Amino acid sequence: MINVLCFAHLKEQIGKEQLEVAHEKLTVKQLLNELQEKYAIQTDALIVAVNEEYADPEDLIQSGDTVALIPPVSGG
């Protein structure tokens, strides 16, 4: 299982603060595509961290990892 943490407006859109994704491994891009299809969220501008380190779309996520989905922050 991969643990996914959702922040800011994503919590409201998805309806949960945490998700468990049943995969042994997949890329960041594959995870975002799956979440976009399942929850109809926009993933283009999300910042993704895997185990508290920023991740690129090609980076591999494995079972036991924690992924944080961080929406862009605006304000002044």
Automatic annotation (TrEMBL):
Q: Pfam families, per this entry?
A: ThiS (PF02597)
Would I find Secreted among this entry's keywords? no
Superkingdom, taxonomy of origin: Bacteria
* Sorted UniProt keywords: Nucleotide-binding
- Family from the record: Belongs to the MoaD family.
Q: NCBIfam families attached here?
A: moaD
* Protein name from the UniProt record: Molybdopterin synthase sulfur carrier subunit
Task: Give the species this sequence originates from.
Answer: Bacillus badius
Q: What is the lineage of its organism?
A: Bacteria, Bacillati, Bacillota, Bacilli, Bacillales
